[in-house]
Design goal:
two-stranded antiparallel sheet; 23% strand; rod-shaped
Amino acid sequence: MSAYKYHFDPETLIYSKVKLDFKTRVYKKFLPKFAISAIIGVIIFVLSSFIIKSPIEKQLEEEKSALILKFDMLNRQMAEAEGSLDEVENRDDNIYRKIFQANPIPQSVRKAGFGGVDKYKIYEGSENLNILKSTAKRLDILSKQLVVQSKSFDEVIDLVKDKEKMLASIPAIQPIALNELTRFGSAFGYRIHPIYKILKMHTGIDLTAPRGTEIHASGNGIVTRADWAGGYGNCVRINHGYGYMTLYGHMNKFIVRPGQKVKRGDVIGYVGSTGLSTSPHLHYEVRINGKFVNPVNFYYNDLTDEEYAEMIEMSSNANTHIFE
């Protein structure tokens, strides 16, 4: 740039030569170029910031992609876990709980809702809000299902233990050993009473055996009565729980007392002919919730299939009804 500048005087109509100082020359020569360069630089920087990513941005992008991939894998693993848990829940409701006569757990309990709208508020503002919220919710539901299923299995275990107790209590053996049994005197059902000579329901079965033959408790229970009971003679009643009760009548002698606990197979007395009886035998009854049932349906623990079939045939052919 020239060190001089010409100034036009309108009054004299003459150009005068004016020398510019160093500062003015620098200002006029370099400032426009610098301003243009700065503007161009800013434009280039702004454009490059959108187009060209910095190393830190690249690293963050890679970490974000890896995190999204991990969340995707986590959701797939949860889907597999949910499928397996659904199968366990199905077996629990339709097999285990049915076996032990327990009601299935309602789906409203197994997959109950969670908290209020603020439960997942901590994820708001996150770039991947939907992924975070859906994953957290699935984890909550899965955790709740696991807790419910764990409690259900605890209940099933208790039912198993109670079932074992129940199976030990149900009358399941013949009160007189098969090798000591002489015959069936009277079967369960209506018959002509051998003494009163009238049609009357025979509420048990008569098992004939020699006087003094051991009589066994047919299941675990508590003796409720051991006394003289009119036509039953010397009689023992056992409460087995779960609605089951057995009666043993016409005993020659009983060796248990009321309130005594007995186990299946324990000797409770001996065959006799007390009360309304015409010959030594045991009158044996089984009641469920107060209702008389055929005792032969409960002889399955101590007999083979062949012995059980023979015993059923003997019972069905016991039509003489010679005993009370």
